[in-house]
Predict the structure.
Amino acid sequence: MEPLFNYFILSLALLSVGIYGLIAKRNAIRLLFSVEIIINAAIINFVAFARYSETPIVTGQTFAIFAIALAAAEAAVGLAIIVQAFRLNNDIDVLELKKLRG
Amino acid sequence: MVFLVISLVTLIAAILSLESRELVYGAVALALSFLGVAAIFILLDALYLAMFQILVYIGSISVLIIFVIMLVRREKWSTIKSGNERIVGIVTALTFFLVIGYVSYNSGLSNIITPNSSIPDFYDIGIQMINDYWLILEVTGLVLAVSVIGALTMAKIERKN
């Protein structure tokens, strides 16, 4: 099998792509894409480090399942917020959503 | 070799999901990226988790995202120009990747070559989830229920004027 470092680098690259999306994109749905990519990178790390630990454990997979379930909840709430913002403002450009600005 | 192909597909699909001109194609590329992550799980001997990933991510989250995109689609989104933000984002992401990669390459992380011999199966996951982490399981179920209620409540708010 591959050494652990390859999985780590893949996870790090996915995390970097997600950070780039969070900084550079203005569309709210693309920000949600970025958050999902970052969560996937974290889950890869959970599973890989559990597989390569010295004693056999499954805690990484257990917490990966919890993380996937929470990501599903987060996507549902995020998409509901996006639909609501679109209905109120007719736009989902995050630079145009200024109603909470003090 | 298999790992290289799968990770390249995952990364390119992730970049494409952020950079594609049409948002629906981006959602499909995101589903492809999730599928690549599921293949990574299979390479890591986590078959149950790969199935769970395909069910939840591709089966529900991607389909939900595609439905929402079809609800709120506008033609002008493909013409939004992002100016300085793109350069700032690329520089930040590259700096992050290089710094963390360099530091971890020089740490003891790159010495771990072989995985442990026993392959965990989903039986162990269920035992551990019920015995050790039952409270987290309950709270996760509560969070899912609350998020469904919150999404439904937000969907019912009417426009004021």
